[in-house]
Amino acid sequence: MPADVSFSFDLGPRRVFLRELHQSFTYESLLDGRPTTWLNDRLLEAARTKAQALHPLMPVVLLPPPVTSDITSPQIPARFGHHESLPAVRCTGRFVSPTVVRNDDEQFSGLVVVWFQPAFAFPIASDVIASLASLDWAALAEDFSL
């Protein structure tokens, strides 16, 4: 029997279920050097773009990731901004609720969320769960039917 790896949470009056999860290492494409502000800005935009390409009919929200500054070598100038790191794993989750937000003719509401956390899920990092629980689902999600 497979392990139960389902994830859901209450968001106000509605229950929200994680239906799909994609994960990869944040700096998988970094072959040399250290991450910088410039690189991280591009990685965040790429994460949003990839999520939108994966789910073109659903809105995408990027949870602001925690950033760790590297001040161990302040004498070494960074060519493309300060040395800083995002958490090690980029996660893209497709969340669905059986409660619609605007259109009663539809069956579900949905939202794609991108976040970063220190390790591969499961579990989902506690700070991410808190951020998910504070989303304004009614304003961000879109209604749809199968």
Topology summary:
Elements: E1 8-11, E2 14-25, H1 37-54, E3 60-62, E4 68-69, E5 84-85, E6 89-97, E7 108-117, H2 126-133, H3 137-140, E8 142-144
Summarize the structure.
This protein has helices at 37-54, 126-133, 137-140, and strands at residues 8-11, 14-25, 60-62, 68-69, 84-85, 89-97, 108-117, 142-144.
Characterization of this structure:
The chain is of the alpha+beta class and 146 residues long. The protein has one domain (8-144). It is built from three helices and eight strands. It has helices at 37-54, 126-133, 137-140; strands at 8-11, 14-25, 60-62, 68-69, 84-85, 89-97, 108-117, 142-144. Strands 1, 2, 3, 6, 7 and 8 form a six-stranded mixed beta sheet that branches. The protein has a two-stranded antiparallel ribbon with strand order 4-5.
Based on CA atoms alone, the radius of gyration comes out at 17 Å
List the helices and strands in order: EEHEEEEEHHE
- Outline type: elongated
Arithmetic mean of pLDDT: 88
> What's the count of strands?
8
Descriptors for this entry?
8 strands, alpha+beta, two-stranded antiparallel ribbon, 146 residues
